[in-house]
Amino acid sequence: MSVAAARVVDPAAPVTTVMISTGDASGDIHAAALVRALRQRIPDARFLGLGGVEMEKEGVEIVVHQREVAVAGLLEVAGALPKIFGAWRALGRAARELRPDLAILIDTPDFNLPLARRLKRAGVPVLYFIGPQVWAWRQKRVFKIARRVDRLAVIFPFEVDFYRPTGLQVDFVGHPLVERMKHAATLHERAADRRSLGLDPETPVLALLPGSRRNEIENMLPLFLETASVVHARNPRVAFVLPVASTLSREWLDEKIAAAKLPSMLRLEVLEGKTYEAISACDAALAMPGTVNLEVALLDRPQVAAVRVNPLTYRIAMQLLRVPWVTLPNLIAQGPVIPEFLQDDAEPEQLADALLGLVSGPARDAQLEALVQVRARLGPGGAAERTADIACEMIRGNGA
């Protein structure tokens, strides 16, 4: 279905209230862009919900901060259940008391799908933006989603077909990273970012991107730092940059780095609030599978993906997985563009081999060439604008 052109809601109408829920740092950024687009259409709207610092900057009233629920992994979630249940209760109470005209749920399906059920029971229309990746695993969830969601905005064109049997209204809006990363690319240039970070223009630089959640760092940072030590042993000239997500404590991260006992001559720059500068400045990146793989690809940098999780979590996930790759660039390309090292294969020696091969040479050239096609398949941008149009249609349909 085509999305109608943007129309501003009558300013004399009652104040429109929109609840937004997203549980991680990337979703927080997407939500902030969507709030900006909605304010252009509904200037006096009130926004509240689950989010982080980017939503706060846009004036969203934070009912629950996303740091309370920022956890990943099938088993790792168990330890955070009291906080998660508390977040559901707080958002459900806000929905009953304030009766939002619309709830927009962004990604984070393990949190947002149960929340959607509570919102539907409270009579709140639900728009889901960045739908669960049912095409990758747990495919029967399409019917659960259709029962709990009124409309779905998806970010890959092939996702529409997966929901077709449910009768749910699904719109392809494009990937929200495309526009944001185009803007980031205009602001960030390798040489300039290296100067701003105090890095020699001739020094090989690798970015370490182990995740944005605390439990991801627990799992991945030791492996990434051990890999850095192996790389350093082979080429002491290589420097490393490690950006810190807003959901993490710098002091806690420093303790983790100190525990790794890195070589005294290894240069590691820990950067707060400078993820794109780190990616822009690097020659290649080591990243945990996730949204960051697309961010690195859209900034035209080669990368290696690696993940280690709880062994039982991994076994369960592999049984549920229905696709041959775990990184989004590979799924979009339908081929192994990015080297993936999962669980037992994620060993520092192998990761070091792959990373050093991407600093220069044919492996680097081949990956960068393949990433051109990945970027082309993501569409021209404008996902926040299209999703805001859908939200306005739903708000008008709800009588706001």
N-to-C CA distance: 22 Å
- Number of helices, counting only DSSP H or I runs of 4 residues or more: 17
CATH superfamily of the largest domain: Glycogen Phosphorylase B
Strand count: 13
The CATH topology annotation of the largest domain reads as: Rossmann fold
* Number of structural domains: 2
The helicity comes to 40-55%
Name the CATH architecture of the largest domain: 3-Layer(aba) Sandwich
Largest sheet strand order? 3-2-1-4-5-6-7
Structural category is alpha/beta
Query: Whole-number radius of gyration?
Result: 21 Å
CATH class of the largest domain: Alpha Beta
Mean pLDDT: 88
Poorly predicted runs: 1-12
Major sheet: size, sense and barrel closure?
A: 7 strands, parallel
From the spread of the alpha carbons, the general shape counts as globular
Please characterize this protein's 3D structure.
By secondary structure, the protein is of the alpha/beta class. α4 links the parallel β4 and β5 (about 125-130). Helix content is about 50%, strand content about 15%. The protein is built from 17 helices and 13 strands. The strands form two sheets. A seven-stranded parallel beta sheet has the order 3-2-1-4-5-6-7, sandwiched between helices. It has helices at about 25-40, 55, 80-100, 110-120, 140-150, 160-165, 175-185, 190-195, 215-235, 250-260, 275-280, 290-300, 310-320, 330-335, 350-360, 360-375, 385-395, and strands at about 15-20, 45-50, 60-65, 100-105, 125-130, 150-155, 170, 205-210, 240-245, 270, 285, 305, 340. The protein has two domains: about 15-175 and about 380-395, Rossmann fold, CATH 3.40.50.2000; about 180-375, Rossmann fold (3-Layer(aba) Sandwich). α3 runs parallel beside α4 (about 110-120) and α9 (about 215-235) crosses α15. The longest helix has 21 residues, at about 215-235.
